[in-house]
Amino acid sequence: MRAYHPAPLARKPPAGDRGVDRARGFAVDEAARAWRGEGGVFRFVLRFVALILLAGAFAAAVIDGARSLAAQQLALTPMGTALAYAFPSKFPLLQPFVERRLHPLLWDPVLLAILSAPAFLDMAVIGFFLFYLVRPRAPAIGVSSRAR
Question: Using one digit for the tens of pLDDT, what is the confidence trace for 95-146?
Fold first, then answer.
């Protein structure tokens, strides 16, 4: 009768080889590892930001709902107004920065539409998009995820 010998555990690479992908033979930076699913800290930070945005969207929706009930008409806070209240000294500098440094067409059709949309909608869309970006990868078809 043969004795049971479990498979040897995978060894970690030496400390000096962290940026090298041995299977492909080229260097891999930390951001690429994070996007491939190997960087837990980057995913955690993005998920935390997405959760904060979704919580802010919920709070903005509750505030807008209470304001609408009190006024007996629909009252939605635009994202531009919310950002102007949150950052009163920095928000007026946004338009000149975008028009001079990035592109003037980015301000007028794109950012003005985003800033005029309701705050809860903007925060919810960005939060869900971030959650979509950092979702776990689907397991490969035909490959077992069990440890052997």
Answer: 899 989 988 888 888 899 999 999 999 999 999 999 999 888 777 787 776 7
Contact present, 74 and 116 (Cβ < 8 Å): no
Q: Residue 97: is it exposed, middle or buried by C-beta count within 10 angstroms (0-12/13-18/19+)?
A: exposed
User: Is 91 part of any domain?
Assistant: yes
Total domains, the chain: 2
pTM for this predicted structure: 0.66
* Residue 125: count of CB within 10 angstroms of its CB: 14
Residue 20: which H helix or E strand, with range?
Answer: strand 20-21
- Nearest-angstrom CA–CA distance, 127 and 119: 12
Question: Could you count the other beta carbons within 10 Å of the beta carbon of residue 91?
Answer: 16
Tens-digit pLDDT profile for residues 78-89 = 999 999 999 999
Same domain, 108 and 35: no
Specify if 113 maps to a domain: yes
Domain containing 113: what range?
Answer: 78-117
Q: Please tell me whether residues 83 and 106 are part of one structural domain.
A: yes
